[in-house]
Amino acid sequence: MLILNCPYCGVDAEETELTAGGEAHIKRHGPGSSDDEFHDYLFMRENPKGVHFERWRHSNGCGKWFHAARCTATLEVFGTYSAQTTEPPKEIREAISAKRPGWKWREFE
Amino acid sequence: MKHYSAFAVAREALRYHTGWERAWRSPEPKKRYDVVIVGAGGHGLATAYYLGKNYGIQNVAVIEKGWLGGGNTGRNTTIIRSNYLQDPSAAIYEKARALYEDLSQELNYNLMFSPRGVMMLAQTQHEVRGYKRTAHANALQGVKTEWITPERVKELVPIINLHGPRYPVLGALWQERGGTARHDAVAWGYARACSNMGMDIIQKCEVTGVRRENGRVTGVETTKGAIECDKLGIVVAGHSGQLAEMAGFRLPVESLALQALVSEPIKPCMDVVVMANTVHGYMSQSDKGEMVIGGGTDGFNNYTQRGSFHHIEETVRALVETFPMISRLKMLRQWGGIVDMTGDRSPILSKTPLQGCFINCGWGTGGFKSIPGSGWGMAQLMATGHSPLTEAFSLDRFKEGRFIDESVAAGVAH
């Protein structure tokens, strides 16, 4: 069972307390964007077999959204972090590098 | 290939079954094929089979990372139905269902197709309206389904509890010619027929790269060396994203784990397939007597072929309310498969940005039932460049806003 630490209330929440919110750090496209940009924004998703960044909500807990870095091939959790950021923080990226040298996800590595 | 028949069984019985031959050859790959299909599951093998049968393209290799039919073909709950709301879905699923009817005879392989009837329970007013609408749509599409009353439901499924406190049964959508088939046999039957046409099925051979020249596919790199080809078909379900990346394009799919489980075998108690979409559970009884149960997908990306326990708990809890007699059944096995989900929960059968490369993926939770239809359409697309069956399922439908929105139509995974 997946257990994520909620960075807001500090609780180690298991899956039934959480709701998965899909890929993290997606850039919003608004009026004036091209068809391709809308297409990618709405439908294209990273689907890595390995390191992945996701949004989660502590829905049956404090109710806050947060981010998690996880491996989709082993279900290992590298860490969770605040929702108030547009990219994975340095300590999370270093934690991943320690375990998965050479990882890459979108423009991050 | 020796013909399977009652006479053959009698003949072999007399000589201690020493005369059976292997159902398909396991050759080493040749340097070059006209068509290479990646993925020897049901869809890949069916594609190869119809390429050979309908279009005479028999210089074909089917490459498989693991073993034949070892992915989702061997992990599903074997349900076959075609009661879809949208026209393109109904067309391809009904084509598949119709092909299943006499596929055992055609392949000379017993697929144990059992058109026992598929019942989709309506347990909310919303579902009642939805299924009545589907029944009318099916009438227009030429798919034989009907709306049935709770009394008829009870007649067909005596073990059901119509008046559950949370999930009363208000009626059902009934497809009499839906049912089940032996899932492994579908892969095995197609494999035997493909091998018999001279196609090479290469197992334990992983594709590690796609060779490209001037925007056109020229072959694949594999763990058994490079293989050249004119056309490449990618039919790998959960790992479509990986293969697409090798071929240099992206797909609007995400891979999730879908689980199923079976109980200990019990005496025959239910001779139809029952699906309860409000509670995300479905159940049928196998020929061995096991109750075969399926549920919903997990909400997050996962490649581990095992899912979360609480989903099983939710599925079983709801089914126990609808079928009180299963409450003390022991569950024997539980497993997961990796399903590739698209935004509109409909598959992608399409040309790709790479010339000569075709993709068949995104079947999500509905792949098994569609195998013959998907293979038929995919073969037509690969051989002729166009297929009326697959036209609506092209990759560019997302950009053009032409969704085949079964996620809204069904309201759940389907």
UniProtKB/TrEMBL annotation, chain A:
GO terms for molecular function: sarcosine oxidase activity. Pfam families: SoxD. GO terms for biological process: tetrahydrofolate metabolic process. InterPro entries: SoxD, SoxD_sf. This is Sarcosine oxidase subunit delta. The lineage of its organism: Bacteria, Pseudomonadati, Pseudomonadota, Alphaproteobacteria, Rhodobacterales.
From TrEMBL, chain B:
Gene3D superfamilies: D-Amino Acid Oxidase, subunit A, domain 2, FAD/NAD(P)-binding domain. One of its GO terms (molecular function) is nucleotide binding. One of its GO terms (biological process) is tetrahydrofolate metabolic process. SUPFAM superfamilies: FAD/NAD(P)-binding domain. PANTHER family: FAD-DEPENDENT OXIDOREDUCTASE DOMAIN-CONTAINING PROTEIN 1, SARCOSINE DEHYDROGENASE-RELATED. Residues 35-79 form the Rhodanese domain. InterPro entries: FAD-dep_OxRdtase, FAD/NAD-bd_sf, Rhodanese-like_dom, SoxB. This is Sarcosine oxidase subunit beta. Its EC number is 1.5.3.24. Keywords: Cytoplasm, FAD, Flavoprotein, FMN, Nucleotide-binding, Oxidoreductase. Belongs to the SoxB family. GO terms for cellular component: cytoplasm. It holds the Pfam family DAO. It is found in: Cytoplasm. It comes from the Bacteria. NCBIfam families: soxB. It catalyses: sarcosine + (6S)-5,6,7,8-tetrahydrofolate + O2 = (6R)-5,10-methylene-5,6,7,8-tetrahydrofolate + glycine + H2O2; sarcosine + O2 + H2O = formaldehyde + glycine + H2O2. It is an enzyme of class 1 (oxidoreductase). The keyword Nucleotide-binding applies.
